[in-house]
Design brief:
The complex is a heterodimer of chains A (about 270) and B (about 280). Chain A is of the alpha/beta class and about 270 residues long. Chain A has a domain of about 60 residues. Helix content of chain A is about 30%, strand content about 25%. Chain A contains 8 helices and 11 strands. In chain A, the strands form 3 sheets. In chain A, strands 5-6-7-3-8-9 form a 6-stranded mixed β-sheet, with helices on both faces. In chain A, β6, α5 and β7 form a beta-alpha-beta unit. In chain A, α3 packs across α4 and α4 packs parallel to α5. Chain B is mostly helical. Chain B has one domain: Orthogonal Bundle (ABC transporter involved in vitamin B12 uptake, BtuC), CATH 1.10.3470.10. Chain B contains 13 helices and no strands. Chain B is globular. The chains are: A alpha/beta (about 270), B mainly alpha (about 280). At the A-B interface, β5 and α2 of A face α7, α8, α9 and α12 of B.
Amino acid sequence: MSRASLLVSTGALIVVDDVTVNYGGGPPVLIDVDLTIEQGDLIGIVGPSGSGKSTLLKAMLGTVAPVSGSVRRTPGLAVGLVPQVETIDWNFPVTVAECVGMARARGLRLPWITKRERSEIADVLDRLGLADLGGRHIRELSGGQQQRVFLARALFTSAQVIFLDEPTSGLDVRTRHDVLHLLDDLNADGLTIVLTTHDLNGIAAHLPTVVCLNRSVIGAGTPEQVLVPDVLERTYGSPMEVLEHGGMRVVVDAPIGDNVTPLRRASGGASA
Amino acid sequence: MSWAELIRPYEFEFFRNGLYVATIAGALCGVVGCYVVLRNMSYIGHGLSHSIFGGYAVAGLAGVNLFLGAGIWGVVTALAVGGIVRRRPIGSDAAIGVVTTASFALGLALVQLYGSPGRNADALLFGNVLGVTTSDVWVIVGVALATAAVVFFFYRPLLFTTFDSQVAAATGVRTAWIDALLMVVLSATVLATMNVMGVTLIAATLVVPAVVARMLTDSFGKMLALSGVIGAVSGFVGMNASYHLDVASGPTIVLTSACFFIVAYVAGGRLRRRAGSVAHAH
């Protein structure tokens, strides 16, 4: 059974029902999108740049209001967001512990991190392999560690659903694998995860559920159901092929033809 | 200079009042300035003080309480800037430039046409310790206590909204409300500080201590505390220098904090080079 259902189901954590979104009366960024997020889902939303991936996340988070349709969330649902690393001000004076601790910002709280919170932060950091880094400035960490700090911040809010916007952007292959395995472990512990990604082979192909988005939902299901030439071409507007390699599905551009023009140097051959 | 000469100004009530206001205002601006600097809104202090000058002139003409009228004007201006930035594709620096300079121009025009209400316009523009009254001391104490309460009780939402507004909003923080709260605090700070610093130099008291503190620490909590201390010391030392050098209080306070900046800049560079050479040796 596909866990990201195009149909509205009962008992879902978040139901996106026929949602259309635009910014300031401009052209629609999302058109009639239906999506249901259920407890325990690990969903990857893929699509070309400008396809509305981040907007769909914002609509589910409630920071963007649809012009039509509705987004229904389970009352009291705690959500966390891991932003794109490109949006972070790395010169902001904040240590790892401060960064995680700021997440509990709702209601009246003491300004300093309490003894109990310090212990909880230490547990979260330890779980994500960041033990002993609480006093470091966020800029002093590696790319993978930085990504995990913001994941730790989301976990510290006791979020039931965590949204990640391009979590592996700019990471090397090894770090990307580490992040993917970490997300898988967290999902196995019961955390519901929704992420956007450009990385079809490194990330999307490994997820249990993939949603192909290009303003509308083009397809949703397992990678075997969705990462197929027809759905990919309708999603990306360009022909793609899917190969089998070592038991894995690998998406590649279609051979150069009418739709893809070779670079001049490639067509001219190597020069001495 | 003998000790007796050094403490001589403390005999005068006007100086003691000025010293209290300058020191408390320095701490207050140091703390509030951290949020201003980290939000890349350094220009807002400059703009807001100019805007409040306009409100001061309008309040005088309307015959309402000058402090209250100018304060409300400042809050409305700050909220208008925030509203424009949210609703139109205009950067905060440009919105501040349009709204606050228009307000300042209105103030100048009204003062020229109808004269300065209450205090001398020059004193408002450049700061004048002689104009500080006991009631001014109580006003700055009140604003400082209110600001301390806001920072204490809203420390985390203020930090979260300043660092990562989008994520803060997504996780349930009422960021628009927090932004508005900060603008109210900023307006009150500028208004309460205007007598000593003058309209033209308030921005420096907001920005310089925060920048110095930022160069000295990578922790937000420590930056907030350091900036408050640097601001208070600048106010205290600058106020004393103002008396002994016979220069307006605003410039001496700003020059004192500028000295902190130079020391932090030089020391910071040396520390970084030393850290780099140690790392290289290892």
